[in-house]
Write a structure and sequence with these properties.
The structure is a homodimer of 203-residue chains.
Chain A (H helix, E strand, L loop, with lengths): L12 H16 L6 H8 L4 H7 L2 H14 L6 H4 L4 H18 L3 H10 L4 H26 L9 H17 L1 H4 L10 H16 L2
Chain A binds a DNA duplex (30 and 30 nucleotides) through helix 3.
DNA sequence: TAGTGTTAAACAAACGTTTGAACAAGGATC
DNA sequence: GATCCTTGTTCAAACGTTTGTTTAACACTA
């Protein structure tokens, strides 16, 4: 039996594998990494992957589950009793914070969108649809209160807002030298996007 | 020597390989497809890939070169003598048309952004930077003519517009049931995005 | 004959997974 | 307290496939 100190100093094999597999899967994609590479970085025997996760796909699924778990918190916006516009701002702020806190999430996000694995249907797609539905709903709410201009489609508008903020982070590898992507500028970016969006949709 | 009819009915090995490799690379990623799979679909011997392209990477580079070649035409907007806002609309329309005409471009686009191959630096990054620069420049032009509100950062605004239109297509695999992505709705989408953007940036 | 295109077969290397032995710890039995 | 057995964990080694690439022979044209 493995001992478990209070500080959790013992290298818990399961969690070590997830920790080392995450950046590797994120940067090279599922097929770009070998189980030996992961095990090597984690200083763990290769067979541990099959032992704990039933195989490479199982480890990948575990990584993705951990990554997309944070997206469920977007649902908290739904129940809040605040202005729809404030909800959108909250979403934008939460998105920025999410990407800063977890630099690999967006990679899994887009990697699964473009080259889906079996995990796409079970993990990624439901997570994305959840977010889109909330944004749609929020805009429809504002529309019914005559807060936004009529004629605007809730879906198009929701995707437009999500696109502005997500695309900024997605393009970072290509525009790193052209654009200042430092976290210090995040606040400016958020206000910028909310500024354009607000003027764009308000009555 | 291979014979070459006027109708080009003979299966030109080089172009056949590119034609069959394109959807495969796009849907599964560089590491998700094997050379045997490509050769099988193309009904061509495996060794032809090394013979014509020097290897798998060479074939992939040829595919990417063909795909990203169309992005160079964005530069045509630069020289036009029209309103900056009209230039933005032209960019949005051209982008939609580009994705409709070539359903694989966006996949290579984002696949290279998230899991870059050696082609990213040589092909993808320059192409993306070229587009971003033109959008930046266009907005700065409008700013200097006091057409747009002051205080708006040209880069953030350019990326915001690009994000709105690109993200819509990127999310299609996940929101297919939630959103109508049919080409018939393209015109509505374009006007929608331009509507939000125009009101968002205009003085 | 020389040169180009195409083929099936073979190449070493890497792939994900499985194996069986070894090990350490906890509880039960004497 | 010493012994045994069970259970969970780890290991090096080997498994059979598949990987990308190369080879040598062949067909055809100029």
């Amino acid at each position: 039996m493995k001992e478990r100190t209070l500080e959790n100093t013992d290298a818990d094999c399961r969690e070590t594998l997830i920790a080392f597999a995450t950046p590797l899967f994120a940067e090279k994609g599922f097929n770009g990494v070998s189980v030996r590479e992961i095990a090597g970085y984690a200083s763990v025997n290769v067979s541990m992957i099959s032992y704990y996760f039933g195989g490479k796909e199982g480890l990948y699924a575990a990584v993705l589950n951990e990554q997309f778990g944070v997206l469920k918190r977007v649902a908290e916006i739904r129940t809040m009793e605040i202005d729809p516009l404030k909800k959108f701002e909250l979403y934008v702020r939460a998105t920025v914070a999410r990407y800063r806190r977890n630099p690999y999430l967006l990679r899994f996000y887009t990697s699964e969108l473009t080259n889906p694995t079996p995990c796409f249907v079970t993990i990624v797609k439901p997570a994305i649809q959840g977010v889109v539905k909330i944004l749609q709903e929020t805009f429809a709410d504002g529309l019914s209160h005559h807060q936004f201009r009529e004629g605007l489609d809730p879906t198009d508008t929701a995707l437009a807002l999500a696109g502005m903020i997500n695309f900024y982070f997605l393009l970072e590898p290509a525009t790193g030298e052209l654009v200042d992507h430092s976290p210090e500028r995040d606040e400016e970016l958020i206000q910028h996007i909310m500024d354009i969006f607000t003027r764009g949709v308000l009555k």
